Amino acid sequence: MRKVYHKILKIAGNVITVEADNVAYNELAEVRTSRGVSLAQVIRLQDSTVSLQVFAGSRGISTDDEVRFLGREMTVSATENLLGRIFNGRGLPRDGRVALDENPIEIGGPSVNPAKRVIPRKMIRTNIPMIDVFNTLVESQKLPIFSVAGEPYNELLARIALQAEVDIIVLGGMGLKYDDYLSFRDTLEKAGALSRSVLFIHTASDPTVECLMVPDMSLAVAEKFALDGKRVLVLLTDMTNFADAMKEIAITMEQIPSNRGYPGDLYSQLASRYEKAVDFDGAGSITILAVTTMPGDDVTHPIPDNTGYITEGQFYLKNGRIEPFGSLSRLKQQVNAATRGDHRAIMDAMIRLYADYRGTLEKQSMGFSMSAWDKKLLRYGVKFEERMMDLSVNIPLEKALDLGWQTLRECFEPSEVGIKTEIIKEYWDKAK
């Protein structure tokens, strides 16, 4: 039997403080006011002093209102009925359909024991050349998409959701504009992909604490499906909004700030979510792609800086393209050798020549005369950007590799591309 408390010591923003015993961190509570019942969650324990974040905000709460602890943490229903559904950060329906309460599981559990993980060796195809050819997405990988406000990162996530070769998509939206939420929903629905998707959406107008629960909701559901043998892709946007929500609550709690005002456990909080990426031995897998918008395009900002230490590379989206030099997939070598015999050779050669093209552009801008080789590089660079970097290009890996050979043939002689003779003999004329 849980105790009921009738005295609130302090109300600061959306955080209330009471004195209570035998209360656990993250435990849920009901706050009963004259306006109804509001749900709250324990976010701080200090001796017998308990601080709770009120989901709907503290407006209308008075110091003599009733607080009743529920003795459990936040849960989410984990069944096949989740597919095709849209929920908010509390797991309540946003699509106007019936709420789900069967098979509840707690969110925010520990990461998987490393002994139960499998070394990642399977490619996830997206039909995006800059990913499939140059920075291959590997099953059970965790990768951020570094970008800035205004870039089409949500459009990129939606396209990956439609085309990725996985069984289930779990989308976690944090601080989304309502138009972005509708865009995700409509895109998935029109393409027939909503039936294999689960959406947890927190919009900018929703309570801050719900933003913090979206990744945990998404990853708890993903883990359940993965244990059932499904290949699950979790798409999170935007982790900067998640970190800013942490910062807002930390300020309310008068915590001592760390770098740029963020809480000192920022790294641990991010890592506890990203480390849920896993390939289960004898079951399915969880792969995580998460957008991180960089304030001022500053990669040394605490959020991208901490993220880079946790994840296995990043996609760097700039000027509407995935940049080849800012992007990195540290696990691509696990799968590149098994896709096609020329994959690694064409990848290395094209990137090296594109780097030479960037150098030639600088020479041209400074007024240097262009040699015959420079002119070849200029021609090649334009074709590379049109055929490989443009996000509108939508072709399978094999066709992208063939297009790469075609581009090299149109611009260079076989002896100029720096590829081994045996590979040149096998593929130079074959892709015509």
Strand content: 15-25%
Could you describe the largest sheet, including whether it forms a barrel? 10 strands, mixed
- Write down the CATH topology of the largest domain: Rossmann fold
Strands, count? 19
Q: Indicate the radius of gyration in whole angstroms.
A: 25 Å
Alpha plus pi helix count: 12
Give the low-confidence spans. none
Please give a structural write-up:
The chain has twelve helices and 19 strands. By secondary structure, the chain is an alpha/beta fold. The strands form three sheets. Strands 9, 11, 12, 13, 14, 15, 16, 17, 18 and 19 form a ten-stranded mixed sheet that branches. It has a seven-stranded antiparallel sheet with strand order 1-7-4-5-6-3-2, with no helix packed on it. A two-stranded antiparallel ribbon has the order 8-10. A hairpin with a 2-residue loop joins β2 and β3. The termini are far apart.
